[in-house]
Amino acid sequence: MRKRVGLAAVALGAMIALPGQAVVTAAVTLTNVIVTSSQSLEKRDFADGVFYVVTANRSAGFKVCNLAAPFAGWVERGDIVRIEGILQVESGSGEACVVTFGDISVSTFGKGDVRPLFLKTGDLGGQPVHEGSPEERPGVTRPAPRGPHNKGLLVSVAGKVTHVNHFNRFFYVDDGCGLDDGYGPPGVRVSCDYQDLSLGQAPIPLPGLGDFVAVTGVSSSEVWQGEIIRLVKVRDENDIRIIRPWPLVTGSDRGVPPAFAAGTGRAFR
């Protein structure tokens, strides 16, 4: 009989703290975690019953795969939930996932408010949860990881679009870190290919090559040529914002405000 590991907004390491118990067989309970991606009849941010939750202090995030979706276990962004399931690591993504068959309870005492963490692209993914077991709960492997484990968290990154793949619906964003994950262009891969389009919504529009963007999504990973690379999974079109640079205004320009009559050379909105 499996022993259940109870989690009440604690660090990820608690999920694998039982001596001699492999992660892939651990029964877990997530309590008081906040939903960051919807999975309901009205809105499903990701396909295949997948949604994400984070702890209230944003110290840990979890992927959840609800095998009963969309018929049971519906959740919306901001819901505070309790989930029982089995923890496993997916070979195709390097992500740890809590698999449940609709064993999800939604709190009736209000909603949670989770803001994304703004990170450098080089800090995405992070180290494995605990030393010596990258195969159990891996971080990322290329480029080498740094900083704390953050897969599953809601994050934001910003930078220049260095590559757009319209067929597989992803693009790369470089914020100056110049990441090299082996695919080619510098930056982090941002995917728009995990959405559930069964409700009739259109695919997420991709930005253009050279655009400056601010992107919000889930810090994730996928396996590419045997390496676990960084990945940001956007939820809908509102997660991608094109940043338009403002022109430089000087005192010699027509229509300049009186305050700029002397020509300060400053830009204004």
How would you characterize the overall build of this protein?
The chain has 269 residues and is mainly β. The protein has two domains: 4-106, OB fold (Dihydrolipoamide Acetyltransferase, E2P) (Beta Barrel), CATH 2.40.50.140; 117-242, OB fold (Dihydrolipoamide Acetyltransferase, E2P), CATH 2.40.50. Helix content is 0%, strand content 33%. The protein is built from no helices and 14 strands. It has strands at residues 4-8, 27-35, 50-55, 61-66, 80-89, 96-100, 104-106, 117-118, 154-165, 170-174, 188-191, 212-224, 227-233, 240-242. It has a five-stranded mixed beta barrel with strand order 2-3-4-6-5. Strands 9-10-11-13-12 form a five-stranded mixed barrel. The relative contact order is 0.14. The model is unreliable at 1-23 and 259-269 (pLDDT under 50).
A few lines on this structure:
By secondary structure, the protein is mainly β.
